[in-house]
Structure formats: C-alpha cells, structure tokens
Amino acid sequence: GAGVSQTPSNKVTEKGKYVELRCDPISGHTALYWYRQSLGQGPEFLIYFQGTGAADDSGLPNDRFFAVRPEGSVSTLKIQRTERGDSAVYLCASSLLWEAANTEAFFGQGTRLTVV
Amino acid sequence: GNSVTQMEGPVTLSEEAFLTINCTYTATGYPSLFWYVQYPGEGLQLLLKATKADDKGSNKGFEATYRKETTSFHLEKGSVQVSDSAVYFCALRDMDSNYQLIWGAGTKLIIKP
Fold this sequence. Notes:
The structure holds 2 protein chains of 2 kinds.
Chain A: E1 5-7, E2 10-13, E3 19-24, E4 31-37, E5 44-50, E6 53-56, E7 65-68, E8 75-79, E9 88-95, E10 106-107, E11 111-115
Parallel strand pairs in A: 2-11
Antiparallel strand pairs in A: 1-3, 3-8, 4-5, 4-9, 5-6, 7-8, 9-10, 9-11
Chain B: E1 3-6, E2 11-14, E3 19-21, E4 23-26, E5 32-38, E6 44-50, E7 56-59, E8 62-65, E9 75-77, E10 86-93, E11 102-103, E12 107-112
Parallel strand pairs in B: 2-12
Antiparallel strand pairs in B: 1-4, 3-9, 5-6, 5-10, 7-8, 8-9, 10-11, 10-12
C-alpha cells in the first residue's frame, strides 16, 4: 500500500481480555517500530524489528506484551490480560533502514485501544 | 540517556503571527533531529529534519536549525495560518538510542482567525 496501515483503528476491550493489533508497513521497508502514545504525551518506544527478528524489545512494559513479524512484513502486537492502564494509541512506523539516524520513519494512524 | 524537552502548550496565536516552539535535547552522541506534526484525526507526519550541526531543515514555511552549542532545534514560522493548528513533536534519533526516536511531549498549536 501507499502508507503504513494499522487495524483496527479503534478497539474497545474488557479488562483481562486478549487483543491483537495489526500493522502493515510500507512495501520494502525492512525496519518496523511499535510505539505507544498516551494522552498529552509523546510516543514511547516499545519494540522494533529488522526483518523478521525483534532487534530491540527493551521498551515492552512487561511480559503481557509481545510482538511478531513472521515474514518480515506485517507485524502483530499482542497484549494478554489487558489492564486499564494499557489504554493508549498504539503507533506503528516503518523505514527503509534502521542503522541510519537520518532515515525517515513513516507512521500509521494508530490504533486507539480502550480497556474498560 | 537521551531526552527531548519542548515547550508546553497549548500555544495560541492569531493568524499571521510569528511562531516559535522551543526544543532542547540531551544526547551523548551526534543525533539527527526531527519535527513531526500531527493534524487532528491524522497520523504523525515528518515536517522537517536536520542531520548535523548547523543544518537547517525547512518545509511548508517552517524552519529549524540544529544548534549543537545550545543543544536546541527550535521550530519557527514567520506567518502562521489556521491550517497549521496541530500538535508538534520534536524528536531525536541516534545510535546511542539504538535508532529509536526519542520524543518530546508535544506542543499543541492553536491558530485563531
């Protein structure tokens, strides 16, 4: 596609449920990032992939969060046993390279997750 | 560790006013610096960037100069329009941050006609 696509755009779930958030990056982009943005704050890094492997998952807040990118394209962020504090906008971005500080990252519109 | 601090909002200006949004950073390496913009209901978009000291990034009438001596990357525009109303984020990226983007908290800009 022309840009980074994230689905769903909105997700409301009950506390304790499992959710999956999907990101379809720009074709050909090998680097993929997940960020979380809480209201009134800047995005917070969660994880990034170079190809199929998670090159850095140091931003995942705890073991309820997990992400995969099995074929080096689409990525899924998985959250188990959701808590109200997980409510935020989850952003996905992709770029051609990751080992280049000046490379532009392109963002999707995000998935707004609300845990009730 | 690396960090970005930007002025708190909201910033409210009249149309055609001069805009400055301050951004300062802390970095151990030599980061690239970015301004992203988030229009209402839309995703983050790159506005401009600068990759080394004294570089000036510019786009859509906005400018920012990478000042290593003051560790700053202030965003400026000479004459704002209502359509510039958005949230603006300053960010840095370098190898010391494992190429993640490190973000400021964002500054909401409101332009009144």
